Structures are given as structure tokens and as C-alpha cells.
Amino acid sequence: MVGMYSFFTPDPRRLATFWADLMGLPIASGATEELVMLDFDHQVGPVTWIFERREEAAPQTTAPLALDIGVGGGRHWTKVADRAEALGAERIEQREVEGVRWIELRDPDGNRFRVFGPRPT
Questions:
Q1: Which residue range forms the structural domain that includes residue 36?
Q2: 48 φ, ψ to 5°?
Q3: Are residues 46 and 78 in the same domain?
Q4: How far apart are CA 112 and CA 22, in angstroms?
Q5: Same domain, 73 and 41
Q6: Number of domains in the chain
Q7: Residue 73, phi then psi, degrees to nearest 5
Q8: CA-CA distance, 8 to 55, in Å (whole number)?
Q9: What is the pLDDT of residue 21?
């Protein structure tokens, strides 16, 4: 089981605020310019998100991990991608392969993530 997602970023507060707003996660008390944690007390889910200051984030072409976000049915999933863009994400592309649909984006630091539509029946 995953216990924590860690991000290295030049601006922990900015990136943590993006993900907190997108995912509906509370920012833990005690946040600093060096370290911000989301959902530390697991009010929303079983995973804590941590954002640590590093002067240079990992280059986006070599990032070995991307988050995939699955949401409910209907067209709601596209609204999550729209909200991510409004919060500062960059939309890369929208794809469909054998009925599986997703929108690929990059967060404000260039980390890749995808928002998936409902699974085909």
C-alpha cells in the first residue's frame, strides 16, 4: 500500500496548493516554505502528499512516475481536467484507445498526470 506521494519542487506551497485544490485535500498545519503536507491526518484518504523544496525539479522528460486520476461516470471526468487547467495545469492531449479515454496534463512543475474517463462496459 502506498503511504505517501513525495514531490520535489522549487516552490512547495504553490505546487501543494495546486494538488490540494484539484484533489480536495486539506493542507496540514505547520506548512513552511520548505515543506508542505496534504491530508497528513488522512481526513480524505489513506495517502499523505508531501512537497519538499528542491531548487530544481526533475526534468519532465525523465520523470519515472505519473499519477492517474480516475473519477466517476458521465462527463464529470472531463470537468476534473478542466479544473486542473484552471488551477495552472497544461493540457497535453486527449486520447481514446479501445474505449478507454483519458486526458494527459502537466502540473505547474511539469509533472505528468492523467485524468481517466469511466471504464468501458
A1: 4-53
A2: -90, 140
A3: no
A4: 14
A5: no
A6: 2
A7: -75, -175
A8: 9
A9: 97
Of 31, 53, 75, the position where a domain reaches its end is 53
pLDDT of residue 1: 65
* DSSP state at residue 100: E
Would residue 91 count as lying in a domain? yes
Residue with cell 470537468: 79
> Exposed e or buried b for every residue in 6-18, given b needs 16+ CB within 10 A?
ebbbebbbebbbb
Strands laid side by side in the 4-9 sheet? 4-9, 48-53, 35-38
The answer to whether 111 and 7 have CB atoms below 8 angstroms apart is yes
Strand 67-70 with 48-53, pairing: unpaired
- Cα distances from 18 to residues 40, 48, 118, 119, in angstroms, run 16, 15, 24, 26
- If you average pLDDT over residues 28-46, what whole number do you get? 94
Place of cell 525523465: 62
C-alpha cell recorded at residue 103: 486526458
DSSP, res 74? T
Considering the domain architecture, whether residues 9 and 49 belong to the same structural domain is answered as yes
Query: Would you say the pTM of this structure is higher than 0.90?
Result: no
